[in-house]
Inverse folding.
């Protein structure tokens, strides 16, 4: 198709036309130049794009929206006009941001850096999103934007962006399910999130540990070695309790059943219990601290199962730790919880905590 000068003039006439009927007629003619199934020749595209970008600001929002939809669906690369519309009000920009193949990463980064959350939401729906654009969306987008990005399986998301999302997900429940359910999230990040999410998501994380290929899991272990552990402030009796556990270990008396004995001594031996539990499971003290203080019986079950503690020992610990009304009547429930944890998945999960302890 070859465009003639009068066709270009129609674009300028559109801005001057004051009647609705006149605008509709000119738009109908302009639309003919945007045959979505046909790409223009390079020279025609450049001329049309130049004129359209130049006069676009003179159109009303309604007209800009109509033309933006045409630009977004066209096979021809109207890069200048697409860039212009991408920075427009969201009603105009949305189809361009969601569909136009003429937008470069530079333009998308400019949109993310300068425009609204609605603009960013539109970007998350693109068919292709580079790692650089994903990174910017994670840094500037609200939870709704990041959730939309995570559910777009064609978006390329780098490890740094995943790390930022995982950190936010620790305190933002809205991000937890989309992150856990997205394919390709580094396993060490899911492991770090395990103690922050609800039971159903924990089961999904454990399921991923069961199914992940060994080579992928090993790579995750290697990455985990460089991650820094969060350390809790040591209690005042930490050193005294540590000496007690050291003494038990030297005597060969630090065995799983001793946990029940120490636990039954009450609050005065709580720190000693945590240190002993950490030693027997070979994980970081912080993991035990968090699990015990939050009465996280799921994590305690995972630790016991993965460390080959027997069911009766776990049930005794769970009954002692649980402060709800079910504690004395919940032995069967606790036993079922223990049995529900796959041994291999538990061992894979706590291996990350073993790495942290070694580091």
């Amino acid at each position: 198709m070859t465009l003639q000068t009068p066709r270009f003039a129609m674009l300028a006439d559109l801005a001057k036309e004051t009647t609705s009927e006149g605008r509709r007629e000119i738009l109908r003619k302009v639309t003919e130049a945007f045959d979505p199934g046909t790409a223009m020749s390079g020279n025609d595209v450049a001329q049309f794009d130049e004129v359209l970008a130049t006069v676009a600001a003179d159109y009303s929002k309604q007209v800009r929206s109509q033309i933006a939809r045409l630009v977004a669906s066209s096979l021809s690369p109207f890069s200048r006009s697409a860039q212009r519309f991408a920075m427009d009000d969201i009603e105009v920009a949305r189809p361009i941001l969601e569909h136009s193949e003429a937008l470069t990463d530079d333009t998308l980064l400019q949109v993310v850096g300068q425009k609204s959350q609605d603009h960013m939401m539109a970007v998350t729906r693109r068919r292709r999103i580079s790692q650089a654009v994903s990174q910017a969306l994670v840094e500037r987008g609200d939870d709704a934007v990041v959730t939309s990005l995570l559910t777009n399986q064609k978006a390329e998301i780098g490890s740094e962006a995943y790390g930022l999302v995982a950190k936010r997900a620790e305190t933002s429940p809205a991000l937890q399910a989309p992150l856990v359910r997205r394919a390709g999230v580094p396993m060490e990040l899911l492991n770090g999130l395990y103690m922050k999410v609800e039971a159903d998501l924990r089961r999904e994380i454990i399921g991923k540990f069961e199914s992940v290929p060994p080579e992928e899991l090993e790579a995750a272990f290697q990455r985990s070695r460089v991650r820094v552990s969060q350390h809790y402030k040591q209690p005042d009796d930490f050193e005294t309790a540590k000496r007690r556990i050291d003494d038990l270990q030297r005597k060969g008396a630090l065995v799983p059943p001793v946990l029940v004995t120490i636990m039954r001594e009450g609050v005065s031996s709580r720190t000693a219990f945590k240190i002993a539990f950490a030693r027997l499971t070979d994980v970081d003290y912080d993991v035990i601290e968090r699990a015990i203080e939050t009465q996280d019986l799921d994590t305690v079950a995972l630790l016991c199962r993965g460390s080959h503690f027997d069911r009766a020992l776990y049930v005794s610990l769970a009954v002692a730790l649980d402060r709800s009304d079910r504690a004395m009547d919940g032995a069967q429930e606790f036993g079922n919880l223990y049995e529900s944890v796959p041994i291999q998945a538990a061992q894979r999960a706590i291996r990350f905590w073993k790495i942290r302890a070694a580091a």
